[in-house]
Amino acid sequence: MQYLYAAVFAGFVALGVAVRTSKEPARRRVGIRGLIGYVAGMSLLAGITQRDAWPFTSHTIAVGRARPDAQVCLLELAGVDATGRESRLDPYSWMPVYESVLQYWLARNLDGLSVAERDVALSFLLRKAESARARRAAGGAIGPSRWLGPLGAPYWLLLPRPPASPEKLAGLRAYSTCWVPRERYAAPQKITRSLRAEHFEALP
Question: How far apart are the first and last CA of the chain?
Fold first, then answer.
């Protein structure tokens, strides 16, 4: 199957190169029509078969109908400074892994880790979070804008970005949080939280 995907990509590149290098206007127009037809056909095929063959995708990002009365549960990380004050972490702290992907991994795997493995994982995340916090607090950028500035495209799922805490992080806490959208819309603080794990260490 991978050879087929490679052939699809090679065909796309070949048609693009043919258009780019064509000298005669008539041949160039034919090449452009062929490239447009190829892109349209491959995109339609990807949608029908529900198979991605980069750069053609089925665009199956999220499926299903949202229910305002259905409970939503996530595993969220909170930063903790030396005074014990918690703060929400910037969702770009974990780039190139995005926050929703990290939450999914933690929810599926955290309970299966040994104590030592959990400490290693949370220590790594704490250092990532502190590095991102320090960079933002100093006026730097993180995430997509770190290298391209305002030209850096944001992740497709937009989340609130709180200001960076001025205090150095001393630990992380992982919480299971649950809420019902309809209820939270009426009362934003109506969320249940239970501590799943925590990790503290003195960072350099």
Answer: 48
